[in-house]
Amino acid sequence: MAEIGVGLVGYKFMGRAHSNAYRQLPRFFDVDPAPRMAAICGRDEAGVREAADTLGWESYETDYRELIARDDVGLVDVVTPGNTHREIVLAALEAGKHVICEKPLANTLAEAKEMVTAARESGTVNTVCFNYRRAPAVQLAKKLVDEGRLGTIRHWRATYLQDFIMDSQFPLIWRLKKELAGSGALGDIGAHIIDLSQFLLGGISEVVGMMETFVKERPLEEGGAETGEVTVDDAAAFLARFESGAVGTFEATRFAAGRRNKNAFEINGSKGSVAFDLERMNELEVFFVDDAADVQGFRTVNVTGPEHPYAGAWWPPGHIIGYEHTFVHTMKDLMYGIKTGRSPAPDFEDAYRCQAVLDAVERSAGGGGWTRPEYGGI
Ligand SMILES: NC(=O)c1ccc[n+]([C@@H]2O[C@H](COP(=O)([O-])OP(=O)(O)OC[C@H]3O[C@@H](n4cnc5c(N)ncnc54)[C@H](O)[C@@H]3O)[C@@H](O)[C@H]2O)c1
Are 11 and 45 in contact (CB under 8 A)? Predict the structure, then answer.
């Protein structure tokens, strides 16, 4: 079987998730090429050495340029904070490597544009890890929309709610600094529901939004009494119009007490509705207007049977899968993309359209009123 050497840059949260995906992928899916976990990269030698051992990588590098230069690395996987994506991705594309980059693609629309242009010029395969598209229940929602079984879509209603920074003493990590993260709740988790909406309903034409920072100073990560300024949003909300005529609401916050990772959406069409909640990710709530009145109501579909994408490769129906499987599915489609030379969606252009919406929401929240995403830049 053909193999492709992977070089992973970053080894913490997403580093673990992506490493697990490469380890599991060839054991459950028949992939060609199969990923070979060639090298992992991090700046701290002791840390990256330990990560290589724990996560199953053959070797490590302490400089991403050395990783990219290796002949045995054909695919570069970028799981570092947003401020580093552009530099690492451009270097990888320049070296003719395939690239998978974590979301959001960049910290600004201008950076995202450069990355799209470089990806086109390199001619290699690229994708962005909006992994929730690949939950089987989300795929079922997509199928019902595309087959017209929900009729004309009127409403999109999405929330991405977390609560991990509610404590005002929670430290000033990179996610709370604009120069590192680009934005706060908006880009970190709001980006996922924007991507899902564009996957399921198509393009967003106009937005009007607001952003708020509740805790404006936080203790520095290094410890001690010193504090620093929070320069991103703690919460963001916006209304949207879709090109299709549907309307949408979006809310992203890390201050929703008790909501640990509630990535949830509902779609209402003229013939029915669907509702998804990541914390119950094996299920899709489905309602059809045409059901007999005496039994009409939302049904809960357990989306684990072999008739659903990806599901058949795992366990018998009803034997549920989890968060980590969405990354395995992402890598499966990436391997197929490398085999066929076609970038799997969401590719850099799709991620640019998400970035354009992030950018429009920020401009709107800054006093712009109804604002149109600038898709024309690419
Ligand atoms: N798809 C998802 O569901 C999801 C979830 C969480 C995070 N993310 C995205 O993944 C990316 C990383 O987030 P995370 O949660 O893993 O962050 P993290 O803080 O857990 O890990 C970041 C890693 O990047 C390394 N790093 C930072 N700068 C570097 C550099 N210049 N060179 C090499 N390594 C460097 C750090 O040492 C660390 O290993 C971000 O883009 C984030 O938005 C995606």
Answer: no
Domains by residue range for the chain, with CATH = 3-131 (3.40.50.720), 133-345+354-366 (3.30.360.10)
129 CA: nearest ligand 1 atom: 1
Task: Name the one residue in this structure whose structure tokens are 């969401």.
Answer: 346
Query: Nearest Cα to 251, choosing from 267, 241, 264?
Result: 264
Query: How would residue 328 be classed by pLDDT, with cut points 50, 70 and 90?
Result: very high
The model's pLDDT over 148-192, given as tens digits with 9 standing for 90+, comes to 999 999 999 999 999 999 999 999 999 999 999 999 999 999 999
Q: How far does the centroid of ligand 1 lie from the alpha carbon of residue 102, in Å? A: 8
pLDDT at 232: 98
**End-to-end Cα distance, the chain:** 37
The two three-digit tokens of residue 30, written as one number: 């028949």
| Percent helix / strand / coil, the chain, rounded to 5 | 40, 25, 35
Distance from Cα 12 to the centre of ligand 1, integer Å: 6
Whether 102 is in the pocket of ligand 1, judged by its Cβ within 6 Å, is: yes
Alpha carbon distance 181, 189 (integer Å): 12
Ligand 1 neighbourhood includes 42 CB (under 6 angstroms): yes
Q: Are 21 and 80 in contact (CB under 8 A)?
A: no
Q: For residue range 78-128, list pLDDT tens digits in order.
A: 999 999 999 999 999 999 999 999 999 999 999 999 999 999 999 999 999
Cα separation, 32 vs 314, in Å, equals 18
Question: In this structure, which residue's CA is closest to atom 28 in ligand 1?
Answer: 80
Query: Could you give the CA distance from residue 351 to residue 375 in angstroms, rounded to a whole number?
Result: 11
